[in-house]
User: Which sequence fits this backbone?
């Protein structure tokens, strides 16, 4: 067995810092995999204390005065979650035959095509198997969901002790990787937000990432990618180090939650098609590089390894789920944003839960609040933005930087600072004020600077509020990062209800006027292109014209692909409230209008 068997055809991706911070404790028992953010070790330590008390587990605080405290906090938290999940699974399996509905709940949430579910139902109908034999069968076949973790590879700041810079392995992402590698969980680490060659090399230090002769891996790597080319490049890069990518997780560039990494107009459908057409090529090319590296290192060379391909971003109906799985031969689909309305699966405060429940299309927008300088999905009315506005009105823009996870800017300082910090914004606003920009441009640039928000704190605070954990250095403002898909869900539901929705066992939870996931993404990309064009100073340069033309060409190629797809699989789109091809035509006309004003400047 190369990796734990996945019993569900969906997973819960990482959401913010806090929203999935303890999701494995909540959902792994039911066979559902989820992803924990490893950004905030301060929050992680608080959650470890909370759960240690709840489950009567030993707890000894790991203070920031201890050596390698970040890695130790992460390792101990993951070990604790692993212990809790295994305990819950053991108790559930042992409960069979007693007055307990846990096994039934587990089976009920599985997809109807699950062999495990079908065999269990057959037993319940026939009652012909001995209870002890059935318990043994359950021991072998009931599996927990995976405890997976996420590292944003660019959040890898250097750390200091007594003013002295520590070695690279104590950088934030490196320490998080070490904590995961040394933990007891048999899960995966999701690498997101681009390449970090130095971090990639660090994987070589841990035997858990090398396969045995049968292709088994103690720990696996999931690479989040936006296109096939990136997957091939990064897959080979890690393979040269003897490290295998067990899963390529394709994420929509804009139709997702959190940070949005836009492509140059490449759409999800054509990207998925390219992965489908080249899946064997990807596997063979990367595996050949891996074998050579393992040979040079004197490591065991397996005959074969698992390679999963999954996708996520804006999926919201059972019809979309089934079509994407079948059409592109995907191993799983990520359902993120809809699960923000499932308190059984995520950690969220009541105020933010109601804000999301009532959010409409106009409330959800692509913001500039992230100090990483990457577009960030947000919702109007979140309390962190309200807190930020009060500080601006008081003449004190920016935040006191307490956690320092996003300190990346060295424009005014030798040691990196965060662009949401009061220190940075004060210096930047003074620079703008004394510049030779005209008044309008100064106002525009100043507004952009002050848009940056302290999401390190804002994305972690919901877990503190929801669990009544004392808020000390943190303020109470909450940042929230749903995808555009949030507009089409307006009910707070149970975990069972959401899984029933995904597997089409109940009438759909999503609004019936919801656009297809492909069309929604296309619409967002057209909006994105339009904004780019409008914000570009005139006259437009040759380089800018070329960029816009390439973007437009890629979108049009995607539109042609969708026309062909909808013609070939017309019945697959019949469930939509509107006509897929007619809506596609309207979006094409809109794209033509958007790019009409782009002209090659005179030489």
Assistant:
């Amino acid at each position: 067995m190369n990796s734990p068997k996945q019993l569900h055809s969906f997973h819960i991706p990482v959401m913010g810092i806090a929203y999935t911070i303890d999701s494995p404790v909540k959902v792994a028992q039911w066979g559902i995999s989820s992803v924990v953010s490893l950004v905030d070790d301060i929050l992680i330590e608080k959650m470890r204390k909370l759960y240690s008390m709840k489950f009567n587990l030993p707890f000894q605080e790991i203070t920031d005065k201890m050596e390698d405290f970040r890695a130790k906090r992460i390792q101990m938290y993951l070990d604790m979650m692993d212990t809790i999940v295994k305990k819950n699974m053991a108790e559930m399996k042992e409960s069979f035959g007693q007055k307990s509905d846990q096994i039934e709940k587990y089976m009920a949430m599985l997809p109807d095509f699950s062999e495990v579910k079908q065999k269990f139902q057959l037993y319940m109908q026939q009652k012909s198997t001995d209870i002890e034999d059935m318990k043994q069968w359950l021991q072998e076949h009931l599996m927990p969901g995976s405890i997976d973790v996420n590292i944003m590879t660019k959040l890898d700041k250097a750390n200091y002790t007594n003013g002295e810079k520590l070695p690279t392995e104590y950088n934030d992402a490196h320490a998080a990787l070490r904590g995961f590698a040394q933990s007891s969980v048999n899960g995966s680490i999701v690498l997101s937000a681009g390449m970090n060659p130095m971090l990639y090399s660090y994987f070589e230090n841990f035997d858990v990432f090398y396969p045995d002769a049968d292709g088994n891996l103690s720990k696996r790597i999931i690479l989040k990618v936006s296109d096939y080319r990136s997957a091939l490049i990064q897959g080979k890069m890690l393979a040269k180090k003897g490290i295998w990518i067990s899963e390529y997780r394709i994420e929509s560039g804009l139709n997702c939650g959190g940070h949005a990494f836009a492509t140059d107009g490449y759409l999800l459908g054509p990207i998925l098609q390219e992965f489908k057409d080249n899946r064997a090529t990807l596997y063979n090319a990367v595996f050949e590089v891996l074998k050579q590296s393992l040979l040079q290192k004197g490591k065991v060379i397996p005959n074969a390894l698992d390679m999963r391909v999954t996708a996520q971003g804006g999926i919201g109906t059972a019809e979309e789920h089934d079509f994407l799985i079948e059409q592109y031969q995907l191993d799983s689909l990520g359902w993120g944003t809809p699960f923000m309305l499932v308190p059984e699966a995520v950690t969220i405060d009541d105020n933010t839960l109601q804000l999301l429940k009532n959010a409409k299309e106009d409330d959800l927008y692509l913001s500039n609040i992230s100090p990483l300088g990457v577009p960030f999905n947000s919702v109007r009315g979140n309390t962190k933005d309200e807190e930020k506005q009060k500080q601006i009105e008081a003449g004190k823009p920016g935040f006191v930087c307490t956690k320092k996870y996003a300190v990346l800017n060295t424009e005014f300082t030798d040691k990196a600072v965060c662009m949401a910090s009061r220190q940075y914004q004060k210096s930047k606003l003074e620079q703008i004020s004394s510049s030779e920009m005209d008044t309008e441009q100064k106002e525009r640039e100043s507004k952009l600077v002050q848009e940056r928000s302290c999401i390190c704190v804002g994305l972690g605070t919901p877990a503190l509020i929801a669990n009544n954990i004392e808020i000390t250095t943190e303020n109470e403002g909450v940042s929230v990062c749903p995808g555009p898909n949030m507009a089409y869900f307006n009910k707070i539901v149970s975990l069972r209800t959401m899984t029933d929705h995904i597997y089409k066992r109940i009438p759909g939870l999503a609004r019936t006027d919801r656009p297809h996931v492909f069309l929604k993404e296309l619409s967002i990309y057209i909006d994105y292109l339009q904004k780019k064009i409008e914000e570009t100073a005139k006259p437009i340069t040759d380089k800018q014209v070329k960029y816009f033309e390439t973007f437009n060409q890629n979108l049009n190629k995607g539109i042609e692909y969708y026309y062909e797809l909808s013609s070939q699989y017309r019945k697959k789109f019949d469930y939509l409230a509107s006509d897929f091809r007619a809506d596609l035509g309207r979006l094409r006309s809109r794209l033509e209008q958007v790019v009409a004003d782009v002209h090659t400047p005179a030489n």
Notes: The first strand starts at residue 10 and ends at 11. The CA atoms of residues 149 and 189 lie 5 Å apart.
